[in-house]
């Protein structure tokens, strides 16, 4: 069950360097404001900051007190104030302290450090407030935060919304710079593949930055890069996650590779924060497993643990000493980890059984398969009518619309007409696909449509008529074999393809694309697929890098999801990396604060 | 279709309130009965290793210090690693400085690894988009310069170079881009560079002639979206509305943007009036129906709220005393309103605004929508006769039978979630067609009679025997099973 690591794995690049660089630069910036100072930090920068520096580091560089940036008067008595923020207009507006001080005749020095970069719009706000000379600004190029051996994050929650919804390209350069940073540290890359508008722009931005700067020849540690826009595949993030890490994220929300387990998990009265990464040996073995496999694994572990403890029976004092000093600590730790994850499993089970999870999964799988659509529509309809979880309803509706082009106004009845705006946003994103009424109706279907064509039944007939219209997902699914043949048993313990992450029902489109392109070394033969995905694909070779070099680095592939990815996708890519020794070992990047795309992307648009 | 789920997220075997993990891994543990016992004994039993064992507890105690297990959150991890790096204590200049240091061993080469440019669907830039040569409009001249990192300001750069320098955060002066044409050219280069940050910068300069700016922006969708986003972010409602006024009505999403305004209106009467004014906006046919519904609903909620608030304060109506309203009904979704009316105004005639039937009519709710909501509301009140009546239909012979637009499985679920007692639940469990499903539901809700009868009908002696073991000694259920098992008339299949 626990997949043994392949012995011929190329070594992963050491991402610690990224942390060190960010930390060094931050210290440099802090020292630009010599003397004691108070530091104000934007709320969502705190966890990332924690990962690269700690309070004592800051204290060493004369940071006195730490505050959160908030919209309220500043109580600090320090003569120097330093602000560490994202380049958000709102936050810049909050920093009106300079004007407040002027009014009271107080003199202080102010410095704003923007990360990862400053925008001209921020300057405009400062200018508007008349404090541009009073406040000095700087940039902290903290682009990438390593979260695990194989995950780096840009930690930019607004990337998705800004880019795909508002159509604002302000983060394109940021993505390009992040790539540039990786290129100069771990490159040169030999090949870059990509699909999506934003990916193309990010590639261009990176390429320009490479040309602007100097290049050093070095031994490449990362061979190839794959850029993919989140909107190329919305289906995958809309599916319920059933691999362990994904479920933990769904229920407890993993943030910066850290999760807070509440009292129901810890079986005590307090919550604890736990780092979830490869350092946690128990977690590392189950994170990519289908949930049904996790129990078996945990139970085996528990038995082993008991056996190890039992060894102490019949030991003499000396043996006991050795046992305590050599083994007990490890056992204890394992005991703690094990009981935590068992607690988490129990909690997950409790929550999932409460919400008809089984039926929900069945509906999702039917939609993916294009089977029993009417039953699925009726399930979703009832789900909505009963005003059960809005986010779930919306998720199902989006999934229905993408896979089948359906839609529903029931939603507005149950959750409020205000959601017209939500729908407009979802449509803008391409998460909700609605077809024009009357389009491609056959005679038969329009008859059925008329029969039920009052306003409530109209939705049903829409769904009906869409059955005839071939949605792109269905075609893509057929072309790429996304839904495995259903008449074969799928043994989740011995996954045969990436579909295991969705109980064997569906291979994630995004990961399948990545696999196909890497196998073919380009998009040749995938013309029909890219047409269905609205194009914007590319595959380019850097002619400097000697791609003939058969070094291990060429097997290390950086996958950058512009707009975020899910833990399920990460698990799928890890699976691919294990299965395809000839070429793959994956390194995943995401650009969202949390990869819980389905929930985040839906809830971020109200 | 088969989706091959090995997981079973059912509630088959709750054990003393705790979800039983075993049920989920039955597949893999089929042959390990002892393992099952092991797991059923709840998680912590499995790990509290014999507390009575003196030796062990002493050991535990004496070695507590040794075992102060490193916290799971490896906070100090970084610290350790930092020490490994030769940290000189000197401030580090920049990323590139550090990069140089770490990559010191590598030699320079010519700038070889050149990746090709790819076509990022840019609209080509023509030098004269605009028909305006409006030097007259340049009254509000701004002298903007954007200072970059090096704080220097010199040189005479083309629009293209200017955009490039801006991208790199270098100093530029926008002062020389004086004519509208120049400004627009700069904007177009910024757009083609795909850098949102740089796109917004020239836009402020164009602010001086909003009318022209807005008109020009309609042909420049990318810049327009950046501008709208900028205005939304800086909460400049006034300018945003002004901008919207200049946009052609056909601009997609425009009516919705105006409709969105209602969210900011707290007073319900003002909000209603605003919604009324929205009715004339050029929505899509479908959206306009929804907006109309929104208006009608709020209007009605205002009336209901006033009447019910009055009744509640008056203390005359029992229902409001017994079940005080938790929140105002204002701005609630339609279904919630229907639920509220089914709860407080169920029996009202169709003529009143608060009558559930009236609401159903006015908003053309589907049978299912109405049914589910009424069911939940009446069940919450434990008005079982009302619940029963919802299902009753007469056929042409006058016999009553229970009919439901919802599957009975779902009905049971709704009732259960509204804490219906077993006696009520079993009536509906019995109506579930599928025998297997019926047994599962009956077991879950402890409707023993149904389980027993179903096994009897299936002639399944083994299952019945098994079920008897779960019944209390001397209970009516046990007696019933015994009678059945002794009944020689039944031809058991096993």
UniProtKB/TrEMBL annotation, chain A:
GO biological process terms held by the UniProt record: protein transport; vesicle-mediated transport
Entry's localization field: Late endosome membrane; Lysosome membrane
Pfam families: Sec1 (PF00995)
Coiled-coil segments on the chain, per record: none
Topology term for the membrane: Peripheral membrane protein
Signal peptide coordinates: none
Superkingdom field: Eukaryota
Name by which UniProt lists this protein: VPS33B late endosome and lysosome associated
Family of the protein in this entry: Belongs to the STXBP/unc-18/SEC1 family.
Annotated InterPro entries: Sec-1-like_dom1, Sec-1-like_dom3a, Sec1-like, Sec1-like_dom2, Sec1-like_sf, VPS33_dom3b
Transmembrane segments annotated in the record for this chain: none
Keywords: Protein transport, Transport
Keyword Transport: yes
Chief location of this protein within or outside the cell: membrane
Organism (species): Sander lucioperca
CC terms in the record's Gene Ontology section: late endosome membrane; lysosomal membrane
TrEMBL record, chain B:
Intracellular or extracellular location(s): Cytoplasmic vesicle; Early endosome; Late endosome
One annotated GO biological process: intracellular protein transport
TM spans (from-to): none
Protein keywords: Cytoplasmic vesicle, Endosome
InterPro entries noted in UniProt: Spe-39
UniProt KW Metal-binding keyword: no
A cellular-component GO term for this protein: late endosome
Disordered: region residues: 101-127
UniProt-recorded name of the protein: Spermatogenesis-defective protein 39 homolog
Gene: vipas39
């Amino acid at each position: 069950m626990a997949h043994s690591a392949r012995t011929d794995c190329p070594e992963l690049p050491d991402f610690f360097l990224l942390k060190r660089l960010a930390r060094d630069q931050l210290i440099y910036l802090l020292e630009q404001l010599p003397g004691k100072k108070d530091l104000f930090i934007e709320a969502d920068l705190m966890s990332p900051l924690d990962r690269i520096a700690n309070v004592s580091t800051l204290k060493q560089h004369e940071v006195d007190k730490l505050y959160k940036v908030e919209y309220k008067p500043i109580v600090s008595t320090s003569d120097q104030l330093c602000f560490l923020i994202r380049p958000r207009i709102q936050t810049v507006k909050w920093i009106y302290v300079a004007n407040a001080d002027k009014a009271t005749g107080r003199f202080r020095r102010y410095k704003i450090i923007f990360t990862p970069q400053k925008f001209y719009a921020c300057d405009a706000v400062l200018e508007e407030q008349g404090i541009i000379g009073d406040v000095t600004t700087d940039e902290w190029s903290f682009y990438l935060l390593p979260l695990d051996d194989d995950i780096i994050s840009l930690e930019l929650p607004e990337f998705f919304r800004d880019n795909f919804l508002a159509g604002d390209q302000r983060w394109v350069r940021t993505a390009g710079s992040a790539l540039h940073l990786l290129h100069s540290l771990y490159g040169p890359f030999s090949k870059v593949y990509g699909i999506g508008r934003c990916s193309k722009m990010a590639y261009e931005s990176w390429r320009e930055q490479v040309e602007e700067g100097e290049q050093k020849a070095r031994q490449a540690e990362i061979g190839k890069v794959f850029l993919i826009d989140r909107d190329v595949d919305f289906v995958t993030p809309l599916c319920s996650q059933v691999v362990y890490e994904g479920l933990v994220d769904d229920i407890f929300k993993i943030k910066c590779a850290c999760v807070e387990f509440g009292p129901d998990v810890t079986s005590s009265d307090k919550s604890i924060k736990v780092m979830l990464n490869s350092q946690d040996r128990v977690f590392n073995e189950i994170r990519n497993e289908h949930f049904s496999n996790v129990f078996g694994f945990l139970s085996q572990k528990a038995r082993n643990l008991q056996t190890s403890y039992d060894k102490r029976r019949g030991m003499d004092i000396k043996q006991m000493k050795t046992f305590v000093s050599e083994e007990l600590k490890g056992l204890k730790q394992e005991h703690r980890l094990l009981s935590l994850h068992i607690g988490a499993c129990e909690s997950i089970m409790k929550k999932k059984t409460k919400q008809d999870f089984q039926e929900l999964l069945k509906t999702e799988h039917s939609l993916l398969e294009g089977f029993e659509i009417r039953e699925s529509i009726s399930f979703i309809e009832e789900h909505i009518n009963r005003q059960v979880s809005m986010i779930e309803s919306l998720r199902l509706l989006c999934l229905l619309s993408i896979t089948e082009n359906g839609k529903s106004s029931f939603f507005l009845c149950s959750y409020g007409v205000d959601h017209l705006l939500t729908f407009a946003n979802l449509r803008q994103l391409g998460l909700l696909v609605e077809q024009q009424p009357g389009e491609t109706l056959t005679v038969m279907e329009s008859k059925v449509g008329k029969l039920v064509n009052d306003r409530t039944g109209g939705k049903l007939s829409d769904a009906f008529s869409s059955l005839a219209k071939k949605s792109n997902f269905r075609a893509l699914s057929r072309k790429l074999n996304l839904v495995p043949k259903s008449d074969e048993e799928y043994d989740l313990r011995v996954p045969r393809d990436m579909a295991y992450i969705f109980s064997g029902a569906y291979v994630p489109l995004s990961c399948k694309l990545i696999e196909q392109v890497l196998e073919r070394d380009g998009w040749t033969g995938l013309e029909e697929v890219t047409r269905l995905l609205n194009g914007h694909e590319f595959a380019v070779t850097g002619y400097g890098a000697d791609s003939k070099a058969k070094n291990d680095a060429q097997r290390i592939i950086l996958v950058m999801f512009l707009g975020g990815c899910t833990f399920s996708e990460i698990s799928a890519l890890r699976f691919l990396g294990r299965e395809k020794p000839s070429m793959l070992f994956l390194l995943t990047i995401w650009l969202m604060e949390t990869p819980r795309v389905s929930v985040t992307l839906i809830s971020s648009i109200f | 279709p088969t989706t091959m789920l090995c997981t079973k997220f059912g509630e088959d075997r709750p054990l003393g309130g705790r979800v039983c993990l075993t049920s989920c891994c039955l597949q893999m543990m089929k042959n390990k009965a002892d393992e099952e016992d092991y797991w059923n004994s709840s998680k912590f039993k499995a790990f509290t290793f014999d507390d009575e064992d003196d030796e062990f507890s002493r050991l535990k105690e004496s070695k507590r210090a040794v075992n102060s297990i490193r916290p799971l959150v490896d906070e100090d991890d970084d610290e350790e690693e930092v020490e490994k790096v030769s940290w000189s204590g000197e401030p580090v200049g920049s990323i590139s400085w550090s990069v140089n240091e770490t990559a010191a061993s590598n030699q320079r080469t010519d700038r070889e690894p050149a990746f090709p440019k790819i076509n990022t669907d840019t609209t080509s830039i023509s030098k004269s988009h605009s028909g305006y040569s409006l030097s007259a409009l340049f009254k509000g001249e701004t002298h903007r310069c954007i200072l970059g990192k090096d704080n220097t300001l010199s040189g005479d750069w083309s629009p293209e170079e200017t955009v490039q320098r801006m991208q790199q955060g270098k100093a530029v002066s926008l002062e020389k881009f004086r004519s509208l044409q120049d400004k627009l050219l700069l904007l177009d280069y910024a757009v083609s560079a795909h850098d949102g940050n740089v796109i917004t910068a020239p836009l402020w300069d164009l602010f001086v002639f909003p009318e022209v700016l807005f008109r020009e922006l309609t042909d420049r969708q990318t810049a327009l979206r950046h501008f709208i986003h900028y205005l939304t972010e800086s909460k400049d409602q006034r300018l945003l509305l002004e901008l919207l006024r200049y946009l052609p009505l056909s601009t997609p999403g425009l009516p919705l943007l105006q409709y969105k305004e209602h969210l900011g209106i707290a007073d319900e009467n003002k909000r209603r009036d605003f919604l009324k004014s929205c009715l004339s906006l050029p929505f899509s046919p479908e959206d306009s129906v929804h907006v109309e519904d929104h208006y009608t609903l709020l209007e009605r909620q205002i009336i209901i709220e006033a009447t019910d608030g009055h009744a509640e304060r008056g203390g005359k109506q029992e229902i409001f005393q017994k079940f005080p309203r938790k929140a105002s009904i204002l701005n609630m979704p339609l279904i919630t309103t229907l639920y509220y009316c089914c709860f407080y105004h169920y029996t009202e005639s169709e003529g009143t605004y608060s009558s559930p039937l009236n609401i159903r009519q006015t908003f053309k709710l589907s049978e299912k929508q109405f049914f589910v909501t009424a069911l939940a509301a009446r069940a919450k009140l434990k008005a079982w006769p009302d619940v029963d009546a919802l299902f009753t239909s007469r056929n042409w012979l006058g016999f009553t039978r229970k009919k439901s637009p919802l599957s009975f499985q779902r009905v049971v679920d709704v009732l259960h979630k509204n804490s219906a007692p077993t006696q009520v639940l079993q009536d509906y469990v019995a109506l579930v067609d599928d025998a297997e499903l019926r047994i599962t539901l009956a077991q879950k809700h402890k409707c023993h009679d149904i389980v027993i009868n179903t096994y009897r009908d299936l002639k399944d002696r083994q299952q019945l025997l098994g079920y008897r073991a779960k019944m209390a000694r001397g209970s009516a259920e046990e007696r019933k099973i015994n009678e059945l098992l002794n009944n020689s008339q039944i031809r058991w299949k096993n």
